[in-house]
Amino acid sequence: MNQAPLQLDTELLLQWYDTRRRILPWREDPTPYHVWISEIMLQQTRVDAVVPYYERFLAALPDVKALADAEEEVCLKLWEGLGYYSRIRNMHKAARQIMDEYGGQIPGTSKELQNLAGIGRYTSEAIASIAFGEVIPSVDGNLLRVFARRTEYEENIKSPQALRDAEVFYSQRISLDRPGDYNQAVMDLGATICLPNGEPLCEQCPWNCLCQAHSSGTELSYPVVPPKKARTVSQHTAILLRFDNLVLLEHRPEDGLLAGLPGFPMLDGHPTEKELKATLSSAATGLQILMRKSYRHIFSHREWEVQVLEILCSSQNEFEVAAAALFPGIQTITADISEIRTRYSIPTAFRPCIQYLQT
Predict the structure, then answer these.
(1) Of 39, 125, 219, 310, which one is the catalytic site residue?
(2) Could you tell me the fold of the domain covering 3-221?
(3) What is the pTM of this model?
(4) Is the domain 232-354 a CATH 3.40.50.300 member?
């Protein structure tokens, strides 16, 4: 294969990256730990949302040992609001693996990195190329979209074959001297120029003279993706059961949605105040039930329609009786309102409830 056109292809991209790259804190000091944290945080999360979390996380846990030694509750609180909490749990496990199995040093190859909890193929390739200079493409959604438009790729871009074809494409072009910069350059290209929604900014693209979709005016026809499945919608009622400054929380089961996290206990459906009092029976005599504003929360494949009811108890005993009547068999936590704000990591799905917990 004639390498001259491919070398020009690479040079055009890196020249653009050197002048137009996004200035991001983990790029300014790309140690393996910094790159690892950023790559895990960036999974399914926007860059602008990640930056303050990244800076706060590093201030609290500046290195692998600090992360390994931290209590899980501390890690979860630092992660609060980023979602997909399995990411931080796996990162915590991986830090302990690194201390126990690798002498505190993050392994330096994509193959070794995949031995760590929570690090899959793409993440291992990103860390290895950026932090250790391994010459390997790290193909994420941005790289797939750019590839699809560059080549007018007609197949489903989410298929395993598309990933293999994209890896071949980038393997032929990746810089041997700057593999990490090359991968980040295509990521930036996809994030800021070859946009996923709406018109790509082709006039600003260093590859516009090489792009088949741009040449034929078919940019919006690529990538080819299957239609999204409709989200499953379910109705729930979040209960804010209170006595004075004490609030009932649920420790959610260790599997399923929001596994193992604290949240406000919920009932299925939208029971009325009359139905709720019937469930509470003798416990309802001194209770005050307040209907609060409902809200929707959208997960990736499902949607919650949440009705919020605040139940005020007049005594500790009434609080305990009401909790047992409403939520038999679940693992609960009695927390002070101040602890909910400072100690417990409440998932975003429950954050609208917190505004009602005024002391």
Answers:
(1) 39
(2) Endonuclease III; domain 1 (1.10.340)
(3) 0.85
(4) no
